[in-house]
Amino acid sequence: MTKSLVSLFAAIALVNAQGGFVPLIDKKFTWDNIPYKVDTDVGLVRGDQVGYNRCNSSTEGPTSLCQTAIINSLDDFCLWAPPEAGKTVGEIEGEMIAWCSQPGHGTRIFPDGAITGVQFTKTPDYVQVVGFMNQTKINMVAGDPGGEMDPHGADQRGNPIGGILFTNAWTGTYVQANEYHNFMGSNQFCLKACDPTKGHAADYCQHIYDTQGCGFNAPSNAKDGVFESCAGDSQAFPGAGVAVPASSQCSTFASTAIYGAGATTTAAIPGASTISFSTTPRPKPTASSSAQSSGSASGSKSSTAPSASSTSGAMLSKGSVTIAAFLISVFAMFTLL
Ligand SMILES: *[C@@H]1O[C@H](CO)[C@@H](O)[C@H](O)[C@H]1NC(C)=O
Ligand SMILES: *[C@@H]1O[C@H](CO)[C@@H](O)[C@H](O)[C@H]1NC(C)=O
């Protein structure tokens, strides 16, 4: 037993020394230098990265496995969701892929009616979208309380493995948001990209409260049925209070004006009026890939902010999967030794 343990630790040390493992959070890319796969580690417990990060018109559509997400504005953002239906977020968080509100990013596109209300806010420290969805339309299990995607995870390979995020909302050109968190579950979502040039990106995009959901990690004034783009104050760091920060200068839109084949409007970002955007023109959506939602700016659905308890069920499944994977790997190593 003692000898086996020594061998086990020696084997682990060897893997670490030879592998040159780099945590996802330390992998930094410019927009024109994104690798085919961000995660090239092989033979680790959770397997290989399922998708890719270099995404283009040939990868776009319903079979895309693009794992590079974008958050630019109310009308142009992505979320991570499962590649196929039938598994909960807790079971498949390492394999989540990007689904976006617009074509042009090489991803899947939200189907009509998937997104039913969104508040986009740009604060001094981050940009975020918080909102409501019919999660079954993006391969999530009905009623799944979900979980958190972030560039950390127990093995530091991220969830999804190799998931990276870019935005043009800070400078007008795409920059990577190394620190992000994205909660998906109970028909609610939030995605926050924390500005690496400000002092507290890791604090605002804290990843340790993964069972707490959007109300705790990204308190907002989002309302189901309302699509609005706002300036906002920065919230308290997650864990330091759930007071909803003030939002201001909000513009509201009909969903049909900003999403889908008939979209005509690009939602302005308050506070970004001095930025000149050098984006490539966005392709027009086709009927089969549109993201038109059934909601509208004047909708009268009930307005509850995503609740703090919405993902309370996620920890169990997520924790058990992680512990089970660890036990299996330890068992496997002992069997080999
Ligand atoms: C498009 O992306 C795929 C997947 O990353 C890649 O294999 C292919 O070479 C890319 N095509 C172009 C024209 O860049
Ligand atoms: C959610 O989407 C599913 C699949 O399209 C649909 O059957 C269901 O009625 C939708 N739920 C709501 C509340 O719109």
From TrEMBL:
Low complexity compositional bias, start-end: 285-314
Signal as UniProt keyword: yes
Entry keywords, A to Z: Signal
Domain of life where this protein originates: Eukaryota
Region of interest (Disordered), residue spans: 274-314
Signal peptide: 1-17
Protein name as annotated: Uncharacterized protein
Organism per entry: Crepidotus variabilis
